[in-house]
Amino acid sequence: MRDESKSMKATIEVIGLRKRFGPRLALDGMTFTVRPRRVTGFVGPNGAGKSTTMRVILGLDAAEGTALVGGVPYRTLRRPLRHLGALLDASALQPSRTARNHLLWLAHSQGVPTRRVDEVIDQAGLGTAARRKAGGFSLGMRQRLGIAAALLGDPPVVMLDEPFNGLDPDGIVWMRGFLAELARQGRAVLVSSHLMSELEDTADHLVVIGRGRVVADTSVSDLLAEASGGRVTLRTSAPPRAAQVLHGAGATVLATGPDTLGVTGLPDEEIVALLARNGVPFSQVSAHRATLEEAYMELTRDAVEYRGIPAGETER
Amino acid sequence: MTATLTPRPPATRRTERGGFLRALHAEWTKFRTVRGWVLAMAGALLVTIAVGLLGTAAPAPGGRGAGSASYPKGPGGEAVNDSFYFVHRTLTGDGALTVPLRSLTGAADTGTGRTAQGAQPWAKAGIIVKESLTQGSPYAAVMATGGHGVRMQYDYTHDMAGPSGKAAQESPRWLRLVRSGDSLTGYASTDGSHWTEVGRAKLPGLARTVRAGLFATSPEAKQETAAGTGFSPAVATGTFGRPDLTGDWSQSAWSGTQVGGDAGTSGSYTNTTEGGFTQTDGGGFTVTGAGDIAPVVGGPVMGVGFSVENFLVGTFAGLIVVIAVGTVFITGEYRRGLLRTTVAATPLRGRVLGAKALVAGGVAFAVGLVAAAITVPVGERSARGRGFHVFPVTSATEARVMVGTGLVCAAATVLALGVGALLRRSGTAVALVIASIVLPFLLAVSGVLPPGASEWLLRVTPAAGFAIQQTLPRYAQVLSVYEPSTGYYPLAPWAGLAVLCGYAALAFGLAVVRLRGRDV
Q1: Does the pLDDT value for residue B67 go beyond 80?
Q2: DSSP readout, A204-262?
Q3: Cβ contact B29–A105 (<8 Å)
Q4: Torsion A100-A106-A108-A113 (CA) sign
Q5: Percentage of chain B exceeding pLDDT 90
Q6: pLDDT at B11 over 60
């Protein structure tokens, strides 16, 4: 377990980032915080600004505003990989260099001992492939190599851009468990994806962005509740009577069919109790449960920049 | 952007030294773990050696044995020509010789079987005091020349001007050389009574008994033809009056010797002449000789031989390889997006480029240095074995050439790295750097351009750096072809290297500024 002082530094703070690529406003006041001990999903459509934000956090791109890692700008860190491990582009490799040598030069750049290289090779599940040239790696293997590189400095903050890309189903399961383990160790974990489904069982917290700004910064359960809107569908042979009873208890009731009512403002268990107590017949009470994907679609409906681009394409 | 995300790190951060060493260690690991780059650098070493040795692998010159394969060396260790006709007696201790020179005439082959009359500009006749008849021994001489007036010369490399004008029958030129210990003083006069001092020479450790007397010699005639500059045999004849001696001279008669046995590499007798002397009725002498008493320089007058830089002719080939490696060391990272990983690991971007330059430049330096350190001695031995002269240089000069070859490779690599970082494209950057260094060098030294254009190229392009390899000296008193095609650079060795380093520093500086100011 990491000590408290280290996990206190396990944050990313992004405040009012603004950046323009030619005529396009790529970041438009992007503001959010990544906290320790949880996986924060960073989700938005292609072109929403996820990768740009991550590059700004790493000091690779300049932008107006502030981005802090553990309270300080990334570019002032002496051994930055010991503070933040990042995977931006798994294919950014010299193809004729072996995976292990790739990790070795990174380790040397941070003064990290060589033995740590072999540790992260094991952690990322690279195994004997580490001695092969990275040019021959599948995208899944490259992602694992990128993960190994991100872990090299044992950083309190880990930031991964689309780590699920190119992973097979086994790899996706492994990655989910892996991210959860990182958070459990007290690290702050920021994981971007353009597909909410990838993050559904992974993220504890979500930062949803569109058109360069945050559209929702919320926990997964709150987001679901909000998207569901607490609507309950009631099937009854006596709609007027039921409407009267429920209305009297403070609910809003709408007729949605000859024998169905839409009820909001009361939880489903209370509806059942009320109807039973008043002797109103009903055959079905079902709470509407939005999926995370639906909630996401609703949030980003206005923010999708590139409609028609097939899923799987990454942004700039 | 109106404000950058993060301000420049404060100055104190930059003083952290371990950070640069870590970046250096990382870049070195990057370099050595790409086998293609390591092999390419080894290839650069081999090609430099191979081209250098093959380029000087000419078969032995006809009739020469290994014995003749060295130039005489002067008192300063420099290669010299020491060939002249000498009419001499021995002088013990102090003394003087005074003589009127009534004329200095000459004849030269024109190359068409005809003979052109007239003394060559540096044809010489006068008085010489020389330690021995051995080539390269110390001497001092006062003389009339064909075109440069009276001169006082000593120990091959020293030349002092006296009164101008030519000696002629109606206006003889009186010459006097006075020995006092190891000091010799030359005088000139137009009437034999009013004397002007031409110069004074110190010959440290000069033997008490020396050879002294009259001499004549002439370097070859330089002839400009449509096909280029040529040199053809020439002789000089000095007509002297009766010499007047003071001091302890030997009682034997005057004897004549062709010093050096023949006219040496700097001269030769024409078809119809040979060296010799005659004594006239009035006690005067007519002396005819060919050759020169002067340092060896490059160009046609050097004769059949090699200089140190000849063995390093393969440097340009090695450069092509190190330039390519230096370029892809940075453009490869741009191409694959790896530079983002690099900059994320080392946020100080100038430090990244500095570490890259030191690694690539350091490897290139080692390639150049080792290639030179192998090629020069191997080439020299092989050339001597085949009967070629090898122009001698001091150890300091040889070290300068070897280290300089390494520095040329290093600077070219840093230039390539800088241009690569600016253009971000391997092909364009490699082509541009090769076109700026190797191409001007080849054009200039191959002689396809007029000498003026070649010299201009070697002044203003990065190819100026090759000047660091020049060992051939240039002397005003020796006529030759001092042009890039004969191994002469317009800039001094270190000045030429400074031009190349200036280009490298400029490209590197611009690359740092550009890398700092842009998103990666």
Answers
A1: no
A2: SEEEEEETTEEEEEEEHHHHHHHHHTT-EEEE-S-HHHHHHHHHHTT-EEEE-SSSEEE
A3: yes
A4: negative
A5: 74
A6: no
Distance of CA A244 to the CA centre of its chain: 44
CA atoms of A150 and A139, how far apart (whole Å): 16
Tokens of A114: 């060589």
Planar angle of CA B439, B444, B449, nearest 5 degrees: 110
Q: Assign B414 a pLDDT band (cuts: 50, 70, 90).
A: very high
Contacts of A95 in chain B (CB under 8 A): 336
Cα distance between residue B327 and residue B331, in whole Å: 6
Query: How confident is the model over B94-111, as pLDDT tens digits?
Result: 999 999 999 999 988 876
Lowest-pLDDT choice from A82-96, B66-80, B192-206, B313-327:
B66-80
The angle that helices B395-423 and B426-446 make with each other, rounded to 10 degrees, is: 140
Percent of chain B scored above 70 by pLDDT? 93
Report how far apart, in Å, the C-alpha atoms of B492 and of each of B395, B469, B497 are: 18, 10, 9
A16 touches chain B (CB under 8 A): no
How high does pLDDT run on average in chain B? 91
Which of A14, A20, A75 is the best substitution to test chain B (most B C-beta atoms within 10 A)? A75
Q: What is the ipTM of this complex?
A: 0.84
Among B1, B2, B5, B30, most A C-beta atoms within 10 A, so best to mutate, is B5
Write down the pTM of the prediction.
0.86
Map B286-318 to HEC letters.
EEEECCCEEECCCCHHHCCEECHHHHHCCHHHH
| Interface with A, mutate which of B6, B38, B325 (most A CBs under 10 A) | B6
Q: Residue B178: is its pLDDT beyond 70?
A: yes
Q: Are strands A188-193 and A38-43 parallel, antiparallel or unpaired?
A: parallel
User: Which residues of chain B does A51 touch, with a Cβ-Cβ cutoff of 8 Å?
Assistant: none
Tell me how far apart the alpha carbons of residues B258 and B263 are, in angstroms, rounded to a whole number.
8
Instruction: List CB contacts (< 8 A) between A31 and chain B.
Output: none
- In a 3-state reduction of DSSP, which class is residue B244? strand
CA neighbours within 13 Å on the CB side: how many for B110?
Answer: 7
Q: Contact at 8 Å (CB) between A44 and A314? A: no
Q: Does A111 touch chain B (CB under 8 A)?
A: yes
Amino acid identity at A120 = V
Comparison of pLDDT for B280 and A146, the residue scoring more: A146
Task: Provide the phi-psi class of A212: left if phi over 0, else alpha when psi is between -120 and 50, else beta.
Answer: left
Q: How far is B336 from chain A (nearest CA, A)?
A: 5
Q: Examine the pLDDT at A24 and tell me if it is beyond 50.
A: yes
**Nearest CA to B400 among B319, B497, B486?**
B497
Radius of gyration of chain B (CA): 30
- Pairing of the two strands A12-21 and A24-34: antiparallel
**Mean pLDDT value of segment A264-268:** 81
Distance from CA of B517 to the nearest CA of A (A): 9
Residue in A72, A74, A40, A45 with CA at minimum distance from that of residue A57: A74
Q: What average pLDDT does this structure show over B485-495?
A: 95
- Amino acid identity of A152? L
Residue A5: pLDDT band by 50, 70, 90 thresholds?
A: very low
Interchain contact, A76 vs B6, CB within 8 Å? yes
